[in-house]
Predict the 3D structure of the following.
Amino acid sequence: MSNVKIIGTDVPNMPWQDRPADAKDWMPLWRYSENPIIGRNPVEGVARIFNSAVIPYEGAFIGVFRGEQINGIPYIYLGKSEDGIHWNFDKDKIPFKDEEGNDFMPVYAYDPRLVEVDGVYYIMWCQDFYGASIGMAKTTDFKTFTRLENPFLPFNRNAVLFPRKINGNFVLLSRPSDSGHTPFGDIFLSESPDMLYWGKHRHVMGKSPEWWESVKIGGGAAPIETSEGWLLFYHGVTGTCNGYVYSIGGAILDIDNPSVVKYRCENFLLTPEEWYEERGFVPNVTFPCATIHDAATGRIAIYYGAADSYVGIAFTTADEVIDYIKEHSVVRENDSEIGRR
């Protein structure tokens, strides 16, 4: 067993459950026994909450949640929790403003991520920008939310910001695609000095021959800085005669040059197996969007959307999951190269 260090803050009150006695001891992740933690119709006018992101905040936890309204249009709602498991949601959508303080709501917004960089909390989501693209906003107090310029043209999804600057720049993962549910999709990296102008685009990794990620992949939770590199939980998609299946995968990126993949697990870390993952509005989905992790213990809680209907939590430790990724790693040329052509 290695002794991997998480580089970050201590979160002693993070949600945690020891591995159950009946859990498969050869798998590095185990599910919370009380999943799903958010059921249907959690707020008036909202049918389902899923694919959402959370973060420690002022001794408790706060999050941005994909709320599918009863009219089918998704928006982002704010949620708060004392323990990271039981959540209370604002009834109204997050009130986004422009730089001048005017109302500036997206046409729709879904699959948000939430990342703190230098005391500022950044929200990223997928929205309409004359086609599916990435929306962004910032807040320092979770009371006022200022939208930023869209970083990219359509079509793009799955934006994930690194939790600190690298070589002086903000760094963002994204997944360029086409106008539909694209049959392709690779993860790319982009840099910005100011969260306004983005460039130095690099390919990180693409789909693989492994069955569970043979159609496309996309960023998931914000990368976790560790002594082995950036730990990335992402989603991989396969096609079946009954539609897509979304699984959770893992990789470790170079700490100084994260377009270079050091290790990439050929196996999934979690795939739809429980009823709340297999049965829902969109069946057979496990979709990671956030982690809460404690530097002191190495514990990691992964928040994931289940079947586009629920939110679940899975647990692991930095030692267990990184050892597993390294032991089952297959890194191909497209992964290990710098990603510039």
In short: The chain has three helices and 22 strands. The chain has one domain: 30-336.
